[in-house]
Amino acid sequence: MDDRPLKTSALRADLFETLAQVEQGQRFLIERYQHPTAALIPMRDYWFLQMTRARAQRDKEPRMPTQRLVIANASGGEGKSTVARELAYSLALDGYRVALMDLDPQASLTKSLGLHDDPASPAHTEAATVGTVFSRDTPPPLPAPMHVEGVDIWPANDALNSVDSILNNDFARAANLRDALDAYLAGMERPYDFVLLDTKPQRTNFLTASVAAADHLLVPVSGVKGLENLDVLLKLVRVARTIAPDLSLRAFVPNRIREDVNHHKGLLEHLRTELSALAPVLPVIRDSLATMGAATETRQPAVLCKPGAKVSGDLRQTTHALVALLQGGRA
Ligand SMILES: Nc1ncnc2c1ncn2[C@@H]1O[C@H](COP(=O)(O)OP(=O)(O)OP(=O)(O)O)[C@@H](O)[C@H]1O
Ligand SMILES: [Mg+2]
């Protein structure tokens, strides 16, 4: 769409109509005394500018090798998909090149970014998922990722349900995802700074293959239930290390925390004392139904659609602590 000139008097008269058009993608140049003095642009253009500017700055700095982070917990509903999505966009806002992999046939992450809204979207096809890499002994290349607001994403759909039957017959293929990601990154002119992998909660061979495709494991925990299956997850990590020897439990991510609730206080205490020998604890992400509800409704990450919300502030802080941790600092 062209940038349309608009006089301030017309803007004043038709503000709501103009904003509705901006929401549809129209850009306006606001003219005052026939000179363009400001622009009204859709939020997605604004984020693009923010990310591009931050990326130009970031490109001047020495870059770390690609950091592969898997977000996993053998308990359901701890915030894996939410944490993966929010960290990815938060990192992109800081100028990092980021990709997301949805490795859960439930596809909550894919859906939360609106990729399943259009029934004709390639996100519904098996060919768009990473499931394809398990189809042969030697993994075929990863499909091209889709793009949503500055982040690349390999979507999920229920075709991923077939991965477990393949791996149950032939566990040797559990290394295929890691190998295919290695090959994909090696072929990129400018590899990603971060690849974040969102996983399913069920402890199956596909989960092992997903964890083994990463080097760092992040464990979101939103309640005591989130730690009940920790031993199951740690056992799975030991198996995954046969494929990814350097895989480490990098950090716990306390999510949906209400510090006024006693058992949440107890949970944090437990993480910071009993479990601190296993991994550090990243800053707390609070429980915010309103903001996460808005993210679900608008199909946008909270850090983009509600940048001023307190929980978005928490997510930004968690992102920065994570980057410091990966660079060798402390959480
Ligand atoms: N900090 C938060 N504040 C409020 N709601 C949250 C927060 N984090 C996650 N949620 C909500 O909790 C629910 C579960 O989160 P999510 O889907 O990310 O969990 P999950 O671990 O990926 O679940 P599953 O095991 O089914 O894959 C979602 O409705 C999500 O919007
Ligand atoms: Mg999920």
From TrEMBL:
InterPro entries: AAA_dom, DNA_Partitioning_ATPase, P-loop_NTPase. The keyword Membrane does not apply. The keyword Magnesium does not apply. Keywords: Plasmid. Residues 69-238 form the AAA domain. PANTHER family: P-LOOP CONTAINING NUCLEOSIDE TRIPHOSPHATE HYDROLASE, PARA FAMILY PROTEIN CT_582. This is ParA family protein. It comes from Deinococcus aquaticus.
